[in-house]
Amino acid sequence: MMTLLAFAGQVRAQEADFDFSKYRAAVKEDAFPRFAKSAEDVRMIAYALIDLDGDGKNELWVKGDEGQDWQGVFALKDDGSVVLLADADVCSQLQFFKNAVAFHSYISPGRVDEGFSVLQNSQVVHSGVLHQEFNIFTDEQEMQDEYYTVDDENVDEETYKETFYALGAEVVLTPEWHDILPTYEEIDDEK
């Protein structure tokens, strides 16, 4: 693994005037965890700005609370909208590569999704998904469904793995996290 140091000064320089509230509603709507009933169930606790593809524009990395363990990475649009680049749910993780983000999620008992998004100019230019479903009610946990896609085309396992390994070495990020305070509605919902 290598540590990403490029763009760090640029990211810090832009954080001072970043207004999370401009994107809050769009993030919440676009990002609710797969297990949540609605966007109202999302409890975001922190964000960090990172320039994943080195284009000089930050992407937004958001974390949910410990009960959800959800996290997502978004491209930011000038109009306040966002584009979800990758997200991970309970018992899950995000991995970062030069110009890419990957995810591994245990969507529900017996279902696992993993995948990646390659970025250029804050847009996904290449992606892949591995989907697996298991029968959790048998001792063998037999596979019920499995498929691989690259750029929305079905591919075999070898092609998927070759594409994933082409991302290169994992990059370890050490972002500066900023707390997200709950909105009045979120505080009221907790009563």
What is the helix tally? 4
For the secondary structure, the number of strands is: 13
What Rg is obtained from the alpha carbons, in whole angstroms? 17 Å
Q: Report low-confidence residues grouped into runs of 5 or more.
A: 1-14
Structural class: alpha+beta
Largest sheet: 8 strands, mixed
Question: What string gives the helices and strands in order?
Answer: EHHEEEEEEEEEEHEEH
* Terminal CA distance: 44 Å
Look at the structure and give the mean pLDDT: 81
The percentage of residues in β strands lies in: 35-45%
Q: What portion of residues is helical?
A: 10-25%
Strand order of the largest sheet: 1-12-6-7-8-9-10-11
Structure in words:
The protein is α+β, with helices and mostly antiparallel strands and about 190 residues long. It is built from four helices and 13 strands. The strands form two sheets. Strands 1-12-6-7-8-9-10-11 form an eight-stranded mixed sheet, covered by helices on one side. A five-stranded antiparallel sheet has the order 5-4-3-2-13. The N and C termini lie far apart (about 45 Å). The model is unreliable at about 1-15 (pLDDT under 50).
